[in-house]
Amino acid sequence: MADPQEQPADLPGCPTEGTGLLPAELRAWMLLLAATGAVEQRLRTVVKEKLDVSHDEFLVLCLLAEQPEGGLRMTRVAELLGRPKTRLTYQIACLQHAGLVTRRSVCGDKRGIEVALTDKARRLLTETSGALAETVTEGLARFMGPDQCAAMRGLVPDLAQEPHRG
After folding, report:
1. Beta carbons of 74 and 111 less than 8 angstroms apart
2. What is the side-by-side strand order in the sheet with 72-73?
3. In the chain, where are the structural domains located?
4. Which of the ends of the chain has fewer CB neighbours closer than 10 A, N or C?
5. Which residues of 122-145 are buried (b: 16+ CB within 10 A; e: fewer)?
6. How far is it, in rounded angstroms, from Cα 90 to Cα 133?
7. pLDDT class for 12, splitting at 50, 70, 90?
8. DSSP, res 21
C-alpha cells in the first residue's frame, strides 16, 4: 500500500489550509475542481474498459440514466453538460451506433430530438455501476483530506472513513 502522505505527481497539493491569499470559498472551489479532475482522470480508464465509450459519452449516459421515463431533448443534454450541440450530435451518433441510445423526434416539434437509453445501456450501467462508484469513492478519498471527506460524505455516503491518501 502507498505511503499515506505520498502525493501523486500529477495532483496538486490539497488547498485546505487558510494560509494563502484566497478566501475559503475559492479554496473550496479549487479543491472541488482538483478532486473532480482526479476522479475524472481515473474514471476515463474504467469507463473505457467497462463500457467501451469515451468519458463524454459516459456523461451523456449518466444524464439519461437519471431520467425516470423517456429521455431528454438534445438541447437540454447540451445545456446540462455545457457542450456545443455539434459535439453532442457526434457523441449521440456514436452512442446510437453502439446500441446504447435511441433518438426520436419530439412530438409537435419538427426540430426537437429526444434521446433515451436502450435496454442494453441500462443493463451495462447496472452491471458496471459498482466498479464505477468504487472508482469515484477511491479517487475522492485519495485526494481529499479528512475534513473534506467528512463534508463530502453528505453527497457520497460510502466515502472511505480512513485518512486521506493524497
Report:
1. no
2. 72-73, 109-117, 101-106
3. 24-152
4. N
5. eebbeebeeebeebbbebbbbbbe
6. 27
7. very low
8. S
Q: What are the φ and ψ backbone dihedral angles of 54, each rounded to 5 degrees?
A: -75, 165
Rounded to 5°, angle at Cα 106 from 65 and 56: 35
Q: Dihedral of CA 56/61/124/65: which sign?
A: positive
Query: What is the C-alpha to C-alpha distance for residues 129 and 139, in angstroms, rounded to an integer?
Result: 15
Multiple choice CATH, 24-152, 3.40.50.300, 1.10.10.10, 1.10.3210.10, 3.30.200.20: 1.10.10.10
C-alpha cell at 78: 447540451
Other CB atoms within 10 Å distance of the CB of residue 71: 20
**Tens digits of per-residue pLDDT, 26-59?**
877 887 888 888 889 889 999 999 999 999 999 9
DSSP E strand stretches across the chain: 72-73, 101-106, 109-117
Q: What is the pLDDT of residues 72-105, one digit of tens each?
A: 999 999 999 998 988 899 999 999 999 999 999 8
Residues 48 and 119: their CA atoms lie apart, in Å, by 19
Does the pTM surpass 0.90? The reply is: no
- Side chain identity, residue 66: E
pLDDT of residue 36: 85
Distance CA 147, CA 163 (A): 10
DSSP secondary structure letter of residue 14: P
